[in-house]
Write a structure and sequence with these properties.
heterodimer; A: mainly alpha; about 0% strand; B: alpha+beta; six-stranded antiparallel β-sheet; 10 strands
Chain lengths: ~170, ~700
Amino acid sequence: MRNWIKSAKHSPIFWARASQCLLLCAITVAMLGAVHSQYDRVGGNLMCGCGCGQMLLECNHLGCPASPGMIRELHAQVASGATDEAILAWFATKYGPTVLAAPIRGGFDTTAWIVPFAIFVLAIFGTFGIVWLWKRRYGMIAKHVSAETAADMTPHEASLRDRIRRETEY
Amino acid sequence: MQPHPMPEFGSFCLLLGLILTIYNFAVGALALWGSSAAGLRATRRPVELWNRLGETARRAGIASFVAVTCAAFALVWAAFTNDFSVEYVREHSNLALNPAYKFAALWSGQEGSLLLWAWLLSGYGLVLRFRHRVDVRLSAFASVILAGVQIFFLLLMCVGAPPFSIHPGPVPADGAGLNVLLRYPEMVMHPPLLYLGYVGFAVPFAFALGALIMRYPGEKWIHITRRWTMVTWLFLTVGIFMGAHWAYSVLGWGGYWGWDPVENASLMPWLTGTAFLHSVMMQEKRGMMKNWNVWLIFSTFLLTILGTLLTRSGAVQSVHAFAQSNIGPWFYAFITIAFAICLFVFFFQRDHLKSENKLESLVSRESSFLFNNLILLVACFVVLWGTLFPVLSEYVQGDKTSVGAPFYNRVNIPIGLFLLLLTGLGPLLAWRSTSLRSLRRNFVLPTAAIVATAIALMLFGVRPWNDGDDMQSTFFSLVAFSLGAGVITGIAEEFLRGARVVKAQTDRNLLSSALLLTRRNTRRYGGYIIHFGVVVIFIGIAGGAFNRSTQSEMSYGDQMYIGPYRLVCQSITQDSTPEYDTDYALLDVYRGDKFVTQLAPERRIYFPGTEQQQPATMVALHSTAQNDLYVVFDGRDPNTGKPEIRAQLHPLIAWIWIGVVIVVVGTGIALMPNLQRTPARLLQQDSVRTPEVAGVGAGGVVAKARNA
């Protein structure tokens, strides 16, 4: 076992798999839902109803016609023991869907969450695919070119080429 | 009829500017065609004739700057002289307004903002036209394209949104005054800086489009536009953060970024511009990603226009007052034409954009740039998607859906952390491919720093699993701090490695060697400093997970506790000035038993008792590197009449602003030319010690360091 670990440690596949596992763990933990107090949690998902475009709990208008009443209603709803979904639905029914700060009504709203994730996954896999394709194509060309040029190159020229490559790095 | 000399002069200047710009565009384009091989064949006229014609177009472009400057001056003059016959001045200024803010009236409203946009564009055009000798033909192409953009803005102001409209009826005795929220020094700076950023991207766009049209050989256009792009990016960065600081210190809700469509409109071109700044290096170094770069700069420019379209057409709702207007169709038309031109030119010239090299390895600097670009573009897409989703949902479902901070935070924070990871990974990878040995050598310390920081933070109490209420945000903060430590270690390692070699070569101390190293490759080490600044900004943002807030009614002698602070109310005062009524509290702040400072949160009502009555919060702030104590006078309880004081504690928030300063310094360094002359002593020593390195200079020293 120890030998296997020792030999595996030198393999790039080992490191790739280890990093994949770490990434998976990180993503799993990141996806775990947060547990806020219900007032903050629900209030953080509501917009002020006066049309100012601010979050309900952040609305700071003096004499705002909507936010003080809405905050009182939120306190009352939380005290009644309703679930988050029920409170949000109650507000959406009373003030219209624009009162919800995020698209959470299901149906077409779901696409708001799916599309960014899909684009992200597509882009990651797409890039991997492109790089793999380029790498494969370059590998074939490079084999052909290096076989032709290596024979013509003196050791001095080869070392110069190597130095140029290194020193133009930044 | 009453004469209005200054507004008439301003309108005349705008019209003159438009005519000159049309001449610049039309005659410049004609001269470029005439002096091309096809034009010379078709017209059989000498090339000198076309060059002379082109020169007249260039001079017309320079003259248009003078005309637009005079128009801008006319508007500012009208504001300074309280000429309320000009509708725009009446709406955005008044007699009592401080002169500094009268100057700011130029960009306080839509028409003035457009005039500022046109003036800055003509200013950029002026510099470009004066510096045309850097490449006469390419500059001529860029000048014509810039003139095309300028025509749009001048035409819009001459027809759609004239800044010099005369107020109908008798001249009012006083104006409506400037929005009270805009009466802050930062607001004098924020819009022009932001606009310098927006407008500036038109220059690299013009060069890129010009280079593509003329099938410009090589990558020289990138060298020419590098400084333009960086300066523009810097302006946009500073403009965005200045707006964030204004929102934080003025609006009183305790945040600095609300994901409002207008804010998003500034973030989108910043994201694509940042991607362009990175990927353009691949084109310079390896002749790769030419299609990608061209589209990145096209997108950046189009996004600056799209952002303006979204926010000014009234298509999306914004807290910014200028969001609703009738100039949307103008922007729809312009963006469609601009996109069609980009697409058309790209389609016909795409064979000119073939890559000279391909990616050789997934573990290379190139692929890290590719992924960095990808993540930036995904972030940009998320912002665009969230901004447009209300419009989409209305189209599909028949009612608008709000997309606010909860959506953006949930989607963008993981993306931002991934970007932070790439900020650390990228510079540690070599071009073409990175060997396993080099990977191990470069990554050991940063990885150790990440793990050590995570363990240390958990030991000091940052434990997401114990933080029931805020588990997710604490977890993200932990990741951000740990990754930040890794990135900073990586950057320090790079500096140290290079500095050690310079030290060995020059017998200087380590600090002086690091400075010399930076001066020899300003772009690379300036870039590292920018990355360091970005990490510091991330640390400041991550501190937000530990925000605390408390609110209570206070009267004389009452106390309030928040974090390490104790606030004791000393007095509550009501006062009246000609401009506003005020209510403020004097609070003594103690840390333990030690007096720290006195804060005076204030609530003002401007123009009380009138239709324009407007409230304003004067936030009281005690800022330290550790945390900000943020105190707001929230108003009076309608039942008890007692003042309500809200106190918030924002850990590490000052690091956001410090990070921006570091980014500015880093960009300044990256803009400086490299130290070319190697000190004689160094050359002498080099030739004695390592003959093969002598004459290679900094490149040799650094390469030796990297391969040591």
